[in-house]
Design goal:
Elements lengths: L11 E3 L4 E2 L7 E6 L4 E6 L6 E4 L7 E3 L9 E4 L5 E5 L4 E6 L9 E4 L7 E8 L2 E6 L2 E8 L4 E9 L4 E5 L4 E6 L5 E8 L2 E4 L3 E2 L18 E6 L2 E8 L11 E6 L7 E7 L6 E6 L2 E6 L4 E5 L12 E2 L12 E2 L13 E2 L7 E4 L3 E4 L4 E7 L2 H6 L3 H9 L5 H8 L4 H31 L20 H12 L7 H17 L6 H13 L3 H9 L7 H9 L6 H12 L4 H10 L3 H10 L8 H11 L2 H19 L6 H13 L1
Parallel strand pairs: 23-27
Antiparallel strand pairs: 1-32, 2-32, 3-4, 4-5, 5-6, 7-8, 8-9, 9-10, 11-12, 12-13, 13-14, 15-16, 16-17, 17-18, 17-19, 20-21, 21-22, 22-23, 24-25, 25-26, 28-29, 30-31, 31-32
Helix pairs in contact: 2-3, 2-4, 3-5, 4-6, 6-7, 7-9, 9-10, 11-12, 13-14
Length: 640
C-alpha cells in the first residue's frame, strides 16, 4: 500500500467521516443519486426496508414500499419531497413524501411507443426528465393530483445519457458510434437544446458500431465552467502511445469546443474526479492518482496541453473502523483496499465502495505539495487557486530565499490588489445607486487567496523578525521587499509594517539605515510613524527632529501634534515642540499638567509645573495660576 513513502507525500485523502450504509449483497441493492448525493440501500425490493443516507447523517430517511419487482433506479426529488422508482423499462412510479399528501403510489408510462426508459433525472422538486432510447420527455409532477403533465419532448436515438446536477444539463450519446453528443439544459420549467458536438475517436470502426462508452465520459464544473471530459485510451493502430483526458468546454450559448488535453503518460484503467477545481485521474494498476490544474498554463507545451502538476501519488492510506456489535474494542481498524475494482467514482468528488458500505469525499491536502513542487512561482499559482490555501501560502512565505520571496509577494499582492479594486468599485456602485441597464453588482467574495497586510504581519513578518537563526539583514530585506511589492501594486502600506521595519532597525542599532530610509522617503510619512520616532529619542536623539519634520511635512495642525505627543506621554517633547513653533504662550497649562500627572513621574510633573510658572511670570508678572482652573495641581505641588 505504498507505506514506504513518507506520509506527507500523499496529497489526496478520503474524508475522515464517510457516509456508511449497508453493503451490497444478494438481498440488498445499493443505488446512488448524484443530484442529492444520496445512497439508497434497498432490501428485497423495498419490502423489508429502504434506507436513504445523504451527505449529512441528519438527512437519513427509512421507509418501506411494496415489492413490485426489481428496482432499476430510485431517486428523491430535491428536498426529499417525491420519490421516483423505476422497476420496468416502460414506466416510473411515484410516492409522495410531502406531509398531508396521499401516500399511495402513482405511475407514469413513457409517451413514445416501443421506447425503453433508460433512466430519469429530477431537475426540480416537481420536474422530472425521462430518458428513453428514442428521446427525452420532460414532465411536471402534481403530487396533490397524483399525476404528471408532459411539458416537452424531443425524439432522438439515445445510446446512454449523463446528468450534471449543478448545471441541470443532460448529455445524450447519439448515432451508431455514440460519439455525437447532444446536451439539453433545464431551467424553471423550460428545456433548451444546446449545440451538439462530436468526440474525436482514436479509431473509426468499420463496420460502424458503438465506440464511445459511458464510462469514458464525465461532466463537471471546473472554475465555474461546464466541461465534458473524455478519457481517450491509447490505440495500437493510431500513433498515440498513452492515454489522455480531453476536455470539451460546453457553454450555455454557442458551440462546444475542445479546450484542454491532459497527458496521462501511461495506459490502463482510469477514473476521474474533480476536487477544488483540480482534475484528479485515478490509475488502477499503479494504485496512484494524478492531478491537473487547467488554469496553470504550461510554458513549454502546445496550447492548453497539460502535464500533471505533481508526481503521481497514492491516496493517503485509510483504515476502516470496525462496526457492529461483535467488535472487540482492542481490534485494530482494517486497512482499506485503495483503488479497488469494486470502487465506483462519481462527480465531482465522490468515491463509493458498495461492497464495504462506504461513501467518501475525496480531498486535497495542500501541505505536501510545498515539497513536491520545486518551482515556487508555479507553487504559488497553484496554491492561490485552492480553497483552503491561506495557512499553506503563509508557511511558504516564511521559508524561502529572497528572489523567491519577491515572486511570492508579487503574486499575493496581485490577488490582493484585484480584490481591493473590486471592493472599491462595488462601494462606488452602491453609493451611486442602481443605474439603468446595468446588472446589480455583487459584493466581491473574499477568498482565502486574498492575503492582506494584517495576515502577512500576524502570521509571517512579526514572527520572522523574532527568529534568532535568521540574519537581521535578511529580515530587513524581506520586510523591504514586501513594502516594495505593495508600492508596486499601488497598495497603501499600513503604518504597522513601517513600525516593524523601524523597530527591527533600532533593535540592531542600524540607525544610519533608518536615517537613510526616512531621508529618501522609503518609509512613507504618517502620524503613527512620527510618534514612534519620537519615542525613540532616548536611544537615538536625532529621531526627535526626524519626527517633527515628518509631522510638519504632513502639514498636521500644531495642536494636533501636541495632542499626539501628549497621548504618547511625551510631555517634555510636546513642550519643546510648542516652543519651537512659538505657541508656548497660548497653550492650556492644565492639558500639560494633566498629562504629566498621568505619567506618575513626580519629577516630570514638577518640571512642567515650573515651566508654566515661568511663563506666567513672563506674561503676567506673577508665577501664580488661575486658582479655579488649576486648584488641584497647585495643591499637589504645595503638598509635595
Amino acid at each position: 500500500m505504498g507505506m514506504t513513502e513518507p506520509p506527507q507525500q500523499h496529497y489526496l485523502e478520503l474524508s475522515e467521516n464517510p457516509v456508511q450504509f449497508e453493503h451490497a449483497s444478494s438481498v440488498n441493492n445499493v443505488f446512488f443519486d448524484e443530484a442529492n448525493k444520496q445512497v439508497f440501500a434497498v432490501r428485497s425490493g423495498g419490502a423489508t426496508g429502504v434506507v436513504v443516507k445523504g451527505p449529512d447523517d441528519k438527512s437519513s430517511v427509512a421507509f418501506r414500499m411494496d415489492d413490485k419487482g426489481e428496482v432499476k433506479c430510485i431517486k428523491f426529488s430535491i428536498g426529499n419531497k417525491i420519490l421516483a422508482v423505476q422497476r420496468t423499462s416502460k414506466s416510473v412510479d411515484f410516492i409522495n413524501f410531502i406531509p398531508d399528501y396521499p401516500h399511495t403510489e402513482f405511475s407514469q408510462e413513457c409517451k413514445t411507443k416501443n421506447a425503453n426508459v433508460l433512466g430519469f433525472c429530477w431537475t426540480n422538486w416537481n420536474e422530472i426528465v425521462f430518458i428513453t432510447d428514442q428521446g427525452i420527455e420532460f414532465y411536471q409532477v402534481f403530487p396533490d393530483k397524483r399525476s404528471l403533465k408532459l411539458l416537452k419532448n424531443q425524439s432522438i436515438n439515445v445510446n446512454w445519457y449523463q446528468y450534471c446536477p449543478e448545471t441541470a444539463v443532460i448529455l445524450l450519446s447519439t448515432t451508431v458510434q455514440g460519439n455525437i453528443l447532444q446536451p439539453f439544459a433545464f431551467r424553471n420549467g423550460t428545456m433548451s437544446k444546446m449545440s451538439k458536438f462530436e468526440i474525436e475517436l482514436p479509431v473509426i470502426p468499420k463496420p460502424a458500431k458503438l465506440s464511445l462508452s459511458e464510462r469514458d465520459i464525465a461532466m463537471a464544473t471546473i472554475y465555474g465552467q461546464l466541461y465534458v471530459m473524455y478519457l481517450k485510451h491509447h490505440s495500437r493502430t493510431a500513433n498515440s502511445p498513452s492515454a489522455e483526458v480531453v476536455l470539451y468546454h460546453l457553454p450555455r450559448e454557442g458551440a462546444c469546443k475542445k479546450s484542454h488535453v491532459l497527458k496521462l503518460n501511461t495506459t490502463g484503467k482510469f477514473a476521474l474526479n474533480i476536487v477544488d477545481n483540480l482534475v484528479v485521474v485515478h490509475h488502477q494498476s499503479s494504485q496512484t492518482s494524478l492531478i491537473f490544474d487547467i488554469n496553470l498554463k504550461e510554458p513549454d507545451c502546445a496550447v492548453n496541453t497539460h502535464q500533471p502538476v505533481l508526481p503521481a501519488r497514492s491516496i493517503h492510506p485509510y483504515r476502516m473502523p470496525l462496526a457492529g456489535p461483535a467488535v472487540v474494542p482492542s481490534q485494530p481498524p482494517v486497512p482499506c483496499q485503495l483503488y479497488s475494482s469494486s470502487w465506483s467514482v462519481f462527480q465531482p468528488d465522490i468515491i463509493i465502495s458498495a461492497s464495504e458500505g462506504y461513501l467518501w469525499y475525496l480531498q486535497v491536502k495542500l501541505h505536501p505539495t510545498v515539497n513536491l513542487l520545486q518551482d515556487k512561482g508555479k507553487l504559488m499559482d497553484f496554491l492561490l487557486r485552492r480553497r483552503d490555501c491561506k495557512m499553506v501560502i503563509l508557511s511558504v512565505c516564511s521559508q524561502s530565499t529572497l528572489p523567491v520571496v519577491a515572486t511570492v509577494f508579487d503574486k499575493l499582492n496581485q490577488v490582493y490588489k484585484e480584490y481591493l479594486e473590486a471592493e472599491q468599485s462595488y462601494t462606488v456602485a452602491m453609493e451611486s445607486g442602481p443605474s439603468r441597464g446595468s446588472a446589480a453588482q455583487k459584493r466581491p467574495v473574499r477568498t482565502q487567496a486574498v492575503i492582506d497586510q494584517s495576515d502577512m504581519y500576524t502570521h509571517v513578518l512579526s514572527s520572522f523578525t523574532e527568529r534568532k537563526e535568521v540574519s537581521h539583514k535578511f529580515v530587513i530585506a524581506v520586510l523591504m521587499e514586501y513594502i516594495r511589492s505593495l508600492n508596486q501594486h499601488q497598495i497603501t502600506v499600513q503604518h504597522y509594517l513601517y513600525e516593524l521595519v523601524i523597530k527591527t532597525l533600532v533593535q540592531h542599532n542600524l540607525f544610519y539605515m533608518l536615517h537613510q530610509f526616512l531621508q529618501y522617503h522609503v518609509l512613507s510619512d504618517s502620524k503613527p510613524l512620527a510618534c514612534l520616532l519620537l519615542s525613540l529619542e532616548s536611544t537615538y536623539p536625532p529621531a526627535h527632529q526626524l519626527s517633527l519634520d515628518m509631522l510638519k511635512r504632513l502639514s498636521t495642525a500644531n495642536d494636533e501634534i501636541v495632542e499626539v505627543l501628549l497621548s504618547k506621554q511625551q510631555v517634555l517633547g510636546a513642550l519643546r515642540f510648542i516652543r519651537s513653533v512659538g505657541g508656548h504662550d497660548n497653550v492650556s497649562a492644565r492639558k500639560f499638567l494633566d498629562a504629566a500627572r498621568q505619567t506618575g513621574d513626580q519629577m516630570l510633573f514638577y518640571t512642567v509645573f515650573r515651566s508654566f510658572q515661568q511663563r506666567n511670570q513672563r506674561l503676567r508678572g506673577s508665577p501664580a495660576f488661575n486658582p479655579v482652573q488649576l486648584k488641584s495641581h497647585v495643591e499637589s505641588v504645595s503638598l509635595e
